[in-house]
Each structure stands twice: as C-alpha cells, then as structure tokens.
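Support request, please re-run this one:
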Amino acid sequence: MPDEGAARSSFRGADPSRLKDLLPGATGRLGIPSPEATGRVWSAWKDIVGPAVAAHAEPTSLRGGVLKVRADSPAWATEIGYLADEIRSRANAVTGAALVAEVRVWTGPRAPGSASETGSSGTGRDPAEDLEREPAKDPAEALERARRAWAKRAGR
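Re-run finished. Output below.
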C-alpha cells in the first residue's frame, strides 16, 4: 500500500494553478488568442448588434480574427453581411483590441437554449404562448399537436 503521507507531502508548497492562468496557453493552441476578450464579445453580443439582430443571430466562433455568426434565416444572413464592418468595429471596441478582422455569416438553426438567451423563439410569436398552453392529456394528442406544429412550420 503506498504511503499516503508521502503523496500528500509532494503537493505541499505548490499552489494550484488558476484557470485564468492556464486558459491562454490552451486556447492559443486552438486559435483563440484571448479567451477573456472572446468572452466579452459573447457577453456583449446584444449591445454590439442590438436586440433585433441578436434575436436572429449569434456568434459561434472567433478564431484567427474571423468572427463567425450564425443567422436563423437567409434574410438575416444578408442583413448581417451588410452590417459586418460595423459589427467588427463594435466588437473590437468592446474588447479594446483589434481581435475581429472579419465577420463571416452562415445560416443554420438556432442552438438549443440560445432562444431563451435572446428572448425570442424565432417563430415570430411570444414564447409565453407555448408555456401557457394546456399540456396534452395523452401521447396521441401530444403527437397530433406536434404533427400540426411541424406542418404549420413547414408551410403545409
């Protein structure tokens, strides 16, 4: 059986590393130059782009000076493309450095949980409507509601 006292004594005098001190090395290898500055862009996203745009777009990555933004529709992707220079300059103002050199936009579905962050369900209606609705009494009713919602969303 190993000597527990010896194992404990080998850690004495060595302070644990702070995560803040370890992040720059790890994130630098991933192409993320400053995790704190990147976090500021995510935290201030609504201030950078405004609430209307933030309801339809979110940052997804920032590597090598390229900020990738996911828009929930082609129309919003086009709008964000027009605003790219302004987004870049506002993001750099928030970080206090020339962290963002380019903004690239892609279109895709909203990530789970992100709709609640922006306060929009992306459906054009109040998300509270979904919460106020009476839950289905049986699985067949729930399945039928889901089918109708899918058909309505798909435009059928």
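The radius of gyration is 23 Å. The beta strands are 57-63, 66-71, 102-107.
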